Amino acid sequence: MPSKAELQKLRSLRDKKTREAQGLFVVEGEKVVGELLAAGLPLHKIYATEQWSGPRTHTLSAAEMARASHFPTPSSVLALGRIHRPTLPEGALRHGLSLALDRIQDPGNVGTLLRVADWYAIDRVILSPDCADLFSQKVINASKGSFARVACYTATLAPLLAETRASAHSAGHTLPILGCDLAGDNVHAMAALSDAVIVIGSEGQGLSPALRPHITRTITIPRYGAAESLNAAIAAAIICDRLAPPR
């Protein structure tokens, strides 16, 4: 039976600093835990009440789950995973399609962007350090299991794009690095691409000024109405639908 201290530790993992210090993240809910298990993500521990029919390492009473839960209405299962931040292989962005997220701070948007990448078989997603934490429960829940299937990396984008562009040029390879911008070229007039980096800026601020020198072409989704902007995840889905090649 878990101690009170262990239950408090589970609850404390809502905080990013605690997650990083412990090297653990928490995910709660029958659907999302089931999706992560189905995707083959190794989970360190699974705490569950008798209502959960899946695998578990610890059984909790309803009262114990309420003390550990991150939600006002606890679910029947809560799982711990180990934080793993893989290193982006050198030269990886020169091959396949990459989605680079620049200052996307809303966790729901980041999670939905992972779903978009999963849907269109994008090869990798790179998050700038000032994006929402990849291991926050809101990101994982919004990804609907894509968190376990999409290759994700965190990197400072400006030097990464500069190095990628320079190495592609040295190899005699022209790599499109596309930045989403209202003043860009119509994405619907473009052909699908096998190799490219697509940079999605924050809805409120757009692309970071530091990234613009490394963008080879800006692209946009034509606006026919009066809306000021599109949600970042919606924009990414439209762009990926146009540019991702059939698989």
From TrEMBL:
Swiss-Prot/TrEMBL keywords: Methyltransferase, Transferase
One BP term from GO: methylation
InterPro entries (alphabetical): Alpha/beta_knot_MTases, MRM3-like_sub_bind, Ribosomal_eL30-like_sf, rRNA_Methyltransferase, SpoU_MeTrfase, tRNA_m1G_MTases_N
A Pfam family of this chain: SpoU_methylase
GO terms assigned for molecular function: RNA binding; RNA methyltransferase activity
Signal peptide: none
Family label: Belongs to the class IV-like SAM-binding methyltransferase superfamily. RNA methyltransferase TrmH family.
PANTHER family attached to this UniProt entry: RRNA METHYLTRANSFERASE 3, RRNA METHYLTRANSFERASE 3, MITOCHONDRIAL
Name of this protein: RNA methyltransferase
Species annotation: Cephaloticoccus primus
